[in-house]
Amino acid sequence: MSDEKMTAPVEAKPEKKKIILSGIQPTGIFTLGNYIGAVRNWGQLQEDYNCYYFVADLHSLTIRQDPADLRKQSLEAFALLLAAGIDPEKSLVFIQSHVRSHAELGWILACNSMFGELSRMTQFKDKAAKHADNVNAGLFTYPSLMAADILLYQADYVPVGADQTQHLEFTRNVANRFNGIYGNVFKLPEAFLPKEGAKIMSLQDPAKKMSKSDPNPKSRISILDDEDTIMRKFRSAVTDSEAHVCYRDDKPGINNLMTIYSVVTGKTYGQIEAEFEGKGYGDFKTAVGEAVSEELRPIRENFARLIGDKAYLEETYKMGAERAERISGRTLAKVRKKIGLLANPF
Ligand code: TYM
Fold first, then answer.
1. What pTM was computed for the model?
2. I need a surface site. Which of 55, 69, 152, 168 has the fewest CB within 10 A?
């Protein structure tokens, strides 16, 4: 061995990138809440993490879906993820039902989820009340499937809005229980909430979260709304009668608009208050509308182009499914072995 080789410094092992995973249901065009609370951040995380994102079509079956609409909305949701800046060259993007490990591990985890803990899920209680004629078993075991989505990929962080934190806590509990019984199989993931905008509220009722399923379209901004529609919706946003732009506990409508404005412009609340000192809500709402419309413009344009290129979308989700199947298959094989299922002969 030459001297040179002997004295060569030991190269530091490059640190392995942490894994990020998240999903979104294809139950309609994403809202500004979905975007600010989740999807916008997903794009920003791509440089520093190994990112896996998917369209959670199996989860959407917990509410009755029209088959033709579901097909259309799943493709649109996939296109929206790309349009919003998720780059399939950098991130793994796929459709949940294309990767069979999800349903399989979902079942296995349902057998390790307790009735009591599932009964405590607030989203289950809300949705069961809203769809009283269809309180199906899938709605109840929804969190077990979500745990499977996450645990299959050994995710470190799960970037979500505030409404998903209870499901993340559940995921950690199930993973812990499983690891305790069968040995260490799953990594325990952490929720990753945005500093601001983890819960964007309805424009018509700032006590409620902005939601795709709200029957009043004025309550939400869809990320494909055109400029006029966005301006109109912000102008009719419910605020208060004080006409003073400032962030305060008793001003939920203004707080919500300030959060939205702050996220899209990068301005602090203090800067926003100074900017609108002595001005009325009309000026403020116009500024919020303009900033949001500008932020969403590239998404509208990208989406219009992508949705016309079905072949590209199909090729991209096929590529994603193949990779996701390989990665998730490794965890699933371990799980199957641990719990005593015979090795799959195929
Ligand atoms: P979904 O489709 O309801 O919402 C997708 C993401 O958007 C966030 N979000 C919001 N954030 C801020 N303000 C709002 N008003 C708002 N509304 C929605 C949600 O918190 C979410 O991050 N169960 C999930 C989908 C899912 C999933 C997963 C997520 C399935 N498997 C595994 C993470 C990991 C859901 O229904 O999200």
1. 0.94
2. 69
**299-316: average pLDDT:** 98
Ligand 1 nearest atom to the CA of residue 27, by list position: 2
pLDDT range class, residue 344, cuts 50, 70, 90: confident
Distance from Cα 179 to the centre of ligand 1, integer Å: 26
- φ, ψ (nearest 5 deg) of residue 83: -60, -30
Return d(Cα 220, Cα 81) in angstroms, integer. 19
pLDDT of residue 12: 58
Query: Ligand 1 pocket test: which of 22, 34, 195 has the largest number of ligand atoms within 8 Å of its C-beta?
Result: 34
Full 3-state SS string of 115-162: HHHHHCCHHHHHHHHHCHHHCCHHHHHHHHHHHHHHHCCCCCEEECCH
- CA atoms of 307 and 160, how far apart (whole Å): 25
Best CA proximity match to 65, nearest among 74, 75, 55, 78: 74
